Amino acid sequence: MRLFIGALGKTQRLVVRGQQLREGEPLVLKLHTPQAATVIFQGGNATESEVIWQKNSSDWSQGRLTKGDRILTLSGVRLEDSGIYKVLDPQGLAVSTMNLKVEGGREAHSRACRASITSLVMAASLLFSHPHVLF
User: Fold this and answer.
1) What pLDDT, on the 0 to 100 scale, is given for residue 110?
2) What 3-state class would DSSP assign to 1?
3) Are 82 and 18 in contact (CB under 8 A)?
4) Which of 4, 5, 51, 115 lies in the 20 to 30 Å Cα band around 11?
5) Which InterPro entries match (predicted)?
6) Integer Cα distance of 11 and 107 in angstroms
């Protein structure tokens, strides 16, 4: 997607994506450009965003967040890490936006159980509709 920015006539590429992770997996945020200046996060029910990283700042909370070459890694994601992450340039314009959904152990287990049940139902229906077929 390309955005037209103001009367200056500059264009900037905006990367928008969604990601789904299980609890405990790492989230890798691509900064996409050396111009990335800030990363903000807005939780699922939050009305305001919070700054989680700023270029050239030692004030940001490192904790689970580590910086690599044009990436930030948030280790061990939790349910409360679900939300919108935005990488901003020095003018505050979004370079990329990611909508993250973190699945808890219970949700992942439920999805796996549903898939197993669906497979069993399909196999049973196949067996009953074609009793001469041996598995």
Assistant:
1) 57
2) coil
3) no
4) 51
5) Ig-like_dom_sf, Ig-like_fold
6) 41
3-state secondary structure of 133: coil
Residue with tokens 């270029």: 55
One-letter amino acid at 99 equals N
| Token pair of 41 as six digits | 């996060």
Render pLDDT for 114-132 as a digit per residue (tens, 0 to 9): 656 665 555 555 555 555 5
Rounded distance, CA 69 to CA 67, Å? 7
Q: pTM here?
A: 0.67
Helix (H, G, I), strand (E, B) or coil at 93: coil
Closest-CA residue to 23 (of 81, 84, 78): 78
* Amino acid at the residue 29: L
Matching residue, tokens 């050396």: 34
CA–CA dist 76, 81 (Å, integer): 10
CA atoms within 13 A on the CB side of 109: 4
DSSP state of 62: -
Residue 96's identity, in one-letter code, is S
